[in-house]
From TrEMBL:
It comes from Vibrio ziniensis. Gene3D superfamilies: NAD(P)-binding Rossmann-like Domain. The keyword Lipid biosynthesis does not apply. GO terms for cellular component: membrane. Keywords: Oxidoreductase. This is SDR family oxidoreductase. It holds the Pfam family adh_short. Belongs to the short-chain dehydrogenases/reductases (SDR) family. GO terms for molecular function: oxidoreductase activity.
Length: 269
């Protein structure tokens, strides 16, 4: 898709990845509807862009039914004005590094909702207001393809998001709407606290800057590539895990003491 003058709805816009994606989209000539919970952060992001008057913000808590309805009504109103959204980027999400036994029911439900149910519901909503041709891009994670200790809920949600994206893209074949999936590896954002960053360094896990992820967002949209995993060797491990999961299990088993050490650090043990 050519992004010049396209209208793009970006959730999680005020986060580390969201900010860089917004900048990269603007550089391509897109007009943005920036969605997040914090109005001050959204205003600051809009003001930081080169042409702030071309973009709009929408304060909405997507973890609530009211927030989702607010997005839907805003997009329907834009559609009625002849300003349909061309691209929906489901970027909002969260994770918690913890043993499953240490999680609360509420935290598990919220994480599943933000990382899986919200993108599903927004995608469903988009079918009534997105342009044709149009694109839905779901931002997942390498952990959607590799089950990793300490991230059981996050892995489950992102794995579901990958299969949802694949199924919806096939379901909408011929409709003019594509559903794409992008899986970053570890990224240098506030989503990962200093202990997680220390663990990744100890394990030799590489991470990318939000700018790198934003470059991939632009590229996958322009090429309309169905799915993409970012980074070596993570993308290879993701494929190996589907064919020979014991190979990946044995590799992670060698890291178990280090992983457990940092999880316990998070919980003050």
């Amino acid at each position: 898709m050519e992004l010049q003058d396209k209208r793009v709805l970006l959730t999680g816009a005020s986060g580390g990845i969201g900010k860089e994606v917004a900048k990269a989209l603007e550089a391509k000539g897109a007009k943005l509807l920036l969605v997040a919970r914090n109005s001050n952060k959204l205003e600051a992001l809009k003001d930081s862009l080169e042409f702030p008057h071309q973009h709009e913000i929408l304060v909405a808590d997507l973890s609530t039914d009211g927030g989702l309805e607010k997005v839907k009504q805003t997009c329907l109103n834009l559609s009625q004005k002849g300003q349909r959204i061309d691209v929906l980027i489901n970027n909002a999400g969260s994770n918690q590094f913890s043993f499953l036994a240490q999680r609360t029911t509420a935290s598990i439900e919220l994480e599943i909702r933000l990382n899986l149910l919200v993108p599903m519901l927004l995608s469903q909503s988009a079918l009534s207001w997105i342009s044709r041709p149009g694109i839905i891009l779901n931002v997942g994670s390498t952990f959607g393809s590799i089950g990793f200790p300490g991230y059981t809920t996050y892995c489950a949600a992102k794995s579901g998001l990958q299969r949802f994206s694949e199924a919806l893209d096939r379901e909408l074949d011929g409709s003019g709407i594509r559903t794409l999936y992008l899986a970053p590896r570890a990224t240098d954002t506030s989503l990962n606290d200093h202990l997680v960053n220390q663990m990744n360094q100890k394990l030799g896990n590489k991470s990318d800057s939000p700018t790198i992820v934003a470059e991939h967002v632009i590229d996958i949209l322009e090429k309309e590539q169905a799915a993409r995993w970012i980074g070596w060797p993570e993308k290879i491990f993701a494929r190996i895990n589907q064919i020979l999961p014991t190979v990946v299990s044995n590799s992670i088993r060698k890291q178990q003491d280090t992983i457990h050490h940092f999880i316990n650090q998070v919980h003050g043990k």
